[in-house]
Batch of 3 targets.
Target 1
Amino acid sequence: MKLRLIIGLLFGLSAAMSMSSVSAAVDEEGAKALAKSNDCFKCHAVDKDKKGPSFKKTAAKYKGKADGEDKVTKAVTTGPKVKLDDGKEEEHKILDTKDPKQVKNLVQWILAQ
């Protein structure tokens, strides 16, 4: 019984440490620089809606969803049609980088808001 308790505690501690290292792995300055160079802030802000939803709203929409990272990645890499707050539709801008590490970093930063 004690061994199970110890193993359970170690597993929980290990999971918590790996989660914190993932969030620490996000390069916030790199993500912001990529967002700025791609004019993301023209339509989005971190904490307020503009032409598009805030990054906080996007993060809340996908919180706890296994496919959240994939959906945001698809939005920034494939240019799907998106509906704006004013009801108009337009194609979402595609990031000008093909570096999967940069894309993943930006997406993880958005979802961490």
Target 2
Amino acid sequence: MNKRDSRLRRARKTRLKIAQLGVKRLVVYKSNCHIYAQVIDETGSKILASASTLSKDIAATVTNGGNVDAAKIVGKAIAEKAIALGVKEVAFDRAGFYYHGRVKALADSAREAGLVF
């Protein structure tokens, strides 16, 4: 089993647990150059809010999308968009990535901005 398969196995276990809870989820995906966050409804069929380092408003403020500072900005932006839609509680779906570095920075800044998970 390679690194990608291990990550996807961890992601599958997490998503099954979140599906049992039946709550909205904050999904995080990271690549080497960018980080992405989405709030998805309970059924998993509709994206309620999204933010990434490729968004025009965020891309103007960050010089490098693949660092912790960019992840903090994306976390704050996704929390503000979700709260504007009336979503305060979500489950954190880290897509199998370890809770460390950019993923942790995004989660912490989303919590500071008022999102509960």
Target 3
Amino acid sequence: MRGMNWPPNKAWTSTDLRLGYRHFVAINYGGKGKDRWVILASVLEADSRLKVSWNELNDKERWNTGWAQLPRDEANPASNLEKTLSGISNESQEYLCLHPSSDSGLFIPSHDKELRRWFIEENE
């Protein structure tokens, strides 16, 4: 596992299809130590959401920070969407309808003046 700063980056690219997509934005995070987690929403379909452990996001074979430029058929192959959704475990399905936290900075306009910090890499 590579050492990543906490809190998480907002942009993530999965190395495999997740819910039929590969590009995600972090909309919430929490937990402490080894129990840290991040809620991700698909960039192309905001209702496609999943909860991922911080340990999993730190696995470079599964996730990369930022949005990698991918050919359209790799980023969102429509023919694989139904197959991908049918393979989601019941445990993962409970996280598909989660909402951004009020302090995520994703609401416009934001009425919460105390937004949580999100990590930003120096080269961004």
